[in-house]
Amino acid sequence: MKKEITYLDRNEYNYGPAPEIGEVLKNFDPNKLCFYTRIYDEGKKSILSDYISELYGIPEKQVILGYGGEDILKQVVHCFLAGGTKQKTLLIPKFSWWYYKSIADEVNGRTIFYPLFEEGNTFKYDIQSIRESVEKEKPEMVLMASPNNPTGNSLTKEELHEILSFIPRETVIVIDEAYASFANKDTSYIKPLIEEFPNLLIIRTLSKFYGLPGLRLGFAFMGADLSVFLNYSTKYLGYNRITEEIGVAVFKASDYYQHIADLMAEDRELYMKELNVLDGFKVYKSEANFILVKYPIAMKAKLQEALKAKGLIVKFMNEEDINTHMRITLGTQKQNRLVIDTIKEVMLNSK
Ligand SMILES: Cc1ncc(COP(=O)(O)O)c(C=O)c1O
């Protein structure tokens, strides 16, 4: 019999989709695929951008859609960092998603890292360092992720506001909020923020809280100064008509997803309680669907082997200064229990 593999390495979703999504697929009229969307005649991009506009109270013109958050990130970096006679600069957090630097490299952008520092059981943005880097490097773009991957910490409203206030208006600011719905149910701050900071782009996705990474659907809200990006990004002939219908259904099924996010919050606590007491372990506070765990490096091979033997795939980090850590996606409560028990067993047997 083929061994069942549990993937807990890419922050995917082990709980399955909301039942409403199956309904959309069952009832989808394939004739719709024979035509481009007609909402274009109303000057709108998609029934989904229109729906998101209503939901967040933000004009449809300021809603961007993409093939996952990944696509919007890549597009915005390419749009503002490519070309010109002088190499352009992107600031990103030191510990962050490897992809940010890679997309800047694609267009010969210069990436400068600003530090995050460890405080107690969390990482924090170093606001003073960001300010100094902005003043020294004069970047074309500053990127923050909140919550950040892989550290799991997010910026408070006040911290975010402080940072946005000292970044010059000609610099594009991108906030990657792929995991934000786990940290904060309230989204009412987005509208005033993009109004106050017209150089701001806030990117979200259906891949994490809404658990549909395979759908490839991301969305973003942009401030009015970024209309160059709107033109760069908008698809003249519309968007995938199945995807946009699923997208609308997903937002309507928020209760299902909130319930699962609540289970994940319980399991974050469980990880803290169970693993923090093990010698050499430290579980960081996370506001996302994964947790970062520091472990004794001497145990790496044994932990890898034991988890693998149970079919559990987690991410052992290799990046500089964060290479004695593993990032574990929160799975179902049963899967999380198995990960914890497996780790505890390895540590117990090593005594
Ligand atoms: C920090 C961060 N941003 C964005 C994404 C993009 O996800 P997607 O392209 O599936 O929306 C990911 C995926 O892992 C991520 O970790």
Task: Please sum up the structure shown.
With 351 residues, the protein is an alpha/beta fold. The protein is 40% helix and 18% strand. It has helices spanning 19-27, 47-56, 68-81, 99-106, 127-137, 157-166, 180-183, 190-196, 227-233, 241-252, 254-275, 300-309, 333-349; strands at residues 6-8, 63-66, 89-93, 110-114, 116-119, 122-125, 141-145, 172-176, 200-205, 218-222, 282-283, 290-294, 312-316, 325-329.
Explained architecture:
The protein is α/β, with parallel strands linked by helices. The chain has 2 domains: 6-15 and 255-349, Aspartate Aminotransferase, domain 1 (Alpha-Beta Complex), CATH 3.90.1150; 19-252, Type I PLP-dependent aspartate aminotransferase-like (Major domain) (Aspartate Aminotransferase, domain 2), CATH 3.40.640.10. It contains 13 helices and 14 strands. It has a 7-stranded mixed beta sheet with strand order 2-10-9-8-7-3-4, sandwiched between helices. Strand 5 (116-119) and strand 6 (122-125) form a beta hairpin. Helix 1 packs antiparallel against helix 10. The radius of gyration is 21 Å and the shape is globular.
